[in-house]
Amino acid sequence: MVLGRHLEYLHAYSGADACKIIEQNRDIVVVLLDVVMETDDAGLKVVKYIREDLDRQDVRIVLRTGQPGYAPEESVIKDYDINDYKTKTELTRRKLVTTVFAAIRSYQQIETVNQSRTGLERIISSAAELLEQQTIHGFAKGVLEQLNHLLGDTVNSVFCARGQGILDDIDDLSFYILGQTGLSSILINQKVSTLKNELTSQMVNTCYSRKKNDFSSENITLYLANGSYRAVIFIELTAELSSITQKLVEVFLTNVSVGYENVHLFHKLRDAAYKDVLTDLPNRLAFLQSLEQFSNYHDQDIVAALIDINHFSDINDGLGQDIGNQLLVAVAQRINQLCTDKTNSCFTVARIGADVFGVIGESDIVNPKNLIALFDFPFKAGEQSLPLNACFGLCAKEQARGEGKKVLNQINIALNLAKKDRQNHAVFYEQEMEDKTLWRLGMIRQLRTDFADNRLELWYQPQLSLTTGKVNGAEALLRWRTAEGKFISPAVFIPLAEYSGLIIEIGDWVIEQACKQIKLLEQQNFNEITISVNVSIPQFRQGNFVESIIEKVHQYQVEPSKFELEITENILMDDPQMVIDALVRLKAEGLRIALDDFGTGYSSLSYLQQLPLDRLKVDRAFVTHIAEEGQSIIANTIINLGKQMNLNVIAEGIEEMAQQEHLKAQGCHDVQGFFYAKPMPADEFVQYLKDNN
Ligand code: C2E
Ligand code: MG
Ligand code: MG
Predict the structure, then answer these.
(1) Tens digit of pLDDT for each residue in 504-525?
(2) Backbone angles phi, psi at 39, to 5 degrees
(3) E strand or H helix at 675, and its extent?
(4) What SS3 class is residue 590?
């Protein structure tokens, strides 16, 4: 043994031989070389081979020359880092031993420098890498891997920290495993005690309380701390560490401890960015990230869904935000339960809006039946138990197109349809829906420009008295003639105008046109003609709707009783009291109110009683078959009801004489229909009056 190394002499009898032996034995550290072997410079060739071909700068070389004065070329000594050269006669046994020892010592110094240099290089590069780690587990794993490299040969290692404040959902002070090597990945997030290794637990504890590293020949425990974040690493060794390696490990630890704190701070930031504070669920951003992967999931029948609680803002307003929040937490828990109850758990449950939740999971869990069933029972909020209902938009993996935002949009399309559908509260997204949405957006755009370009017209359909046979009014009906001269039915574009809010501007224009028309008719001496105008719910929702009508009526000096508003029952659906109040004020001004499409809506008779009505309109649906045997019962009832309530009754959609006769017999007051006249432009209507009245 020399300086802790085995000393063994290997012999080579030619330069070529020497090259082979040196190449095969990586642990040769000193070479004694004859310059002259098979050729005069065979030894010099070996030097070149060691330094250049094998790239071994660390091997020490002692050259031996035959005769004194036969010195090797100076350039070789200079270029190839030759330790020494001796003549044969100089090399006595004693001299040989000292020369070899000196060469070995020199080798070791070089090795130490090399080792710490590569170690430091590794520390620098790994610290930079570890500083970029964004998860605690990734960081722990990275630190252990780097330590493994640094230590060379380790067996098992664990990275531990107290659970509280570090791991989500864990609130005790036991040590938990954040990373491991050589053991099993199931251990991650488990207590150190699950290792069933007393020694490890004890060493970890001791190290944590002593706040000091401990190096022994079998294992090392390392203390990692920065700010308030502390951790312990336990590593089993196969051989004792050299003091230089211990130093390197310490340097490494100080370098990465900053990273340990960073990764926690990052985690906190991430939590803030990706978590919903109220329910502790992932938020919209996190849900979007899960959706990025959605269409790429393999072999699984998975579905993404949005759950939108109906009328939640009413609950918030009515019962207070505290109760509202408690309800949301209860809903979150129940949705979560749905997923954890089943063996196959969901991928994600998130809260993506005030009262909107998102779920991604397999279709045997995330399906309309299960989602609807979530709302079968009331939800607890404090002392109260409140029933809630919701709408659901779903999207199956195969239907999803594109990445996160796009998919969310697709589910939203389905959700919006579910909200509008009275029967079906859970709707699956289909490609056609998007096509339809695109079509709708295109139509709305066109409607907007065409309205601005004055392409909308107001036509008039005469209304006649059944008793006198004279025209006593007209219903104003919108017509949209596109630039190509095509007419688009109001049944198509009115819902779009309502949906886009355009109906407010358009409605104002209609009211103004109607006022002008009444004045125009008066100028032509048609003084008894009432004009009916249809109004939609978004118009009522405008704060100043009532005032703006009254203002127009005043501005054009229209006699209010000649101005009739047609409302449908469905207008009452959203906010009956608001509509009733508005109508009462309009009625007080002297305007007339008619209830259109009566019998086709959903309103209750109790609301109808509160409406300040002047007129009931019997819908065309009840008129069409009125002359047929047994088909007149509803029309008859409505006419009677109107008369009982002292209302004027008008029937619309009369196309035949028989229908007119039946209505006359029932005592219906007025009529409107193609049998008399179709809707017509304003000037034609004036002509019509001239011809008929
Ligand atoms: P509505 O208020 O029930 O209007 C009556 C509809 O029945 C009109 O359709 C009219 O042309 C049609 N009609 C009248 N008599 C007959 C008939 O004998 N046979 C048949 N088959 N149809 C008849 P139009 O003009 O297509 O309007 C459809 C709906 O669009 C209207 O139904 C109304 O709800 C809405 N609308 C039209 N103009 C306006 C408007 O200015 N504002 C608002 N908010 N809605 C409007
Ligand atoms: Mg109408
Ligand atoms: Mg109608």
Answers:
(1) 999 999 999 999 999 999 999 9
(2) -125, 175
(3) none
(4) coil
Which of 400, 429, 458 is the endpoint of a domain? 429
* Number of domains present in the structure of the chain: 4
Lowest mean pLDDT among 82-91, 181-190, 476-485, 608-617: 82-91
Residue 469: Cβ within 10 Å count: 11
Which residues are near ligand 1 (CB < 6 Å)? 461, 477-478, 489-491, 494, 510, 534-536, 566, 596-597, 620, 652-655, 672-674, 679
- Whether residues 468 and 594 fall in one domain: yes
Same domain, 472 and 492: yes
H or E element in which residue 337 lies:
helix 321-341
Return the C-alpha torsion angle 105, 110, 113, 114, nearest 10: -140
Q: Nearest 5°: phi and psi at 532?
A: -100, 135
Question: Which strand (E) or helix (H) includes residue 123?
Answer: helix 93-131
Higher pLDDT, 76 or 553: 553
Q: How many CB atoms lie within 10 A of CB 416?
A: 18
Q: Which of 502, 534, 663, 676 to mutate to test the pocket of ligand 1 (most atoms within 8 A of CB)?
A: 534
Taking the centre of ligand 1 as the mean of its atom positions, its distance from the CA of residue 477, in whole angstroms, is 6
pLDDT computed for residue 94 by the predictor: 82
Indicate if 225 and 288 belong to the same structural domain.
no
**17 half-sphere exposure, CB direction, 13 A CA radius:** 9
Tell me the pLDDT tens digit for each residue of 30-49: 998 888 888 888 888 898 89
Q: How far apart are CA 558 and CA 513, in angstroms?
A: 12
Domain endpoint, select from 55, 86, 115: 115
The residue with tokens 């003639």 is 481
269 and 314, same domain (yes or no): no
Name the residue range of residue 105's domain.
Answer: 15-115
CA 80/CA 33 separation, integer angstroms: 13
Where does residue 534 rank: exposed (0-12), middle (13-18), buried (19+ CB within 10 A)?
buried
Q: At what angle do helices 431-452 and 404-420 cross, to 10 degrees?
A: 80
417-424: long-range contacts (C-beta < 8 A, 24 or more apart)?
417/393, 418/308, 418/391, 418/392, 418/393, 419/308, 419/310, 419/391
Check whether residue 591 and residue 686 sit in a common domain: yes
Average pLDDT, the chain: 88
Helix or strand holding residue 96 (H, E):
helix 93-131
| Residues 63 and 146 placed together within one structural domain of the fold | no
Tokens of 11: 């012999």
Pocket test for ligand 1, best of 447, 463, 477, 663 (most atoms within 8 A of CB): 477
Q: Band the pLDDT of 390: cuts 50, 70, 90.
A: very high
Read off the CATH number of the domain in which 62 is found: 3.40.50.2300
Query: In this predicted model, what pLDDT tens digit does every residue of 525-546 receive, in sequence order?
Result: 999 999 999 999 999 988 899 9
Nearest Cα to Cα of residue 513 among 542, 538, 476: 476
Distance 505 CA to ligand 3 centre (A): 22
Ligand nearest to the CA of 494: 1
CATH number at residue 261: 3.30.450.40
Write the pLDDT tens digit of every residue in 408-430. 999 999 999 999 887 889 999 99
On whether both 523 and 595 belong to a single domain, the answer is yes
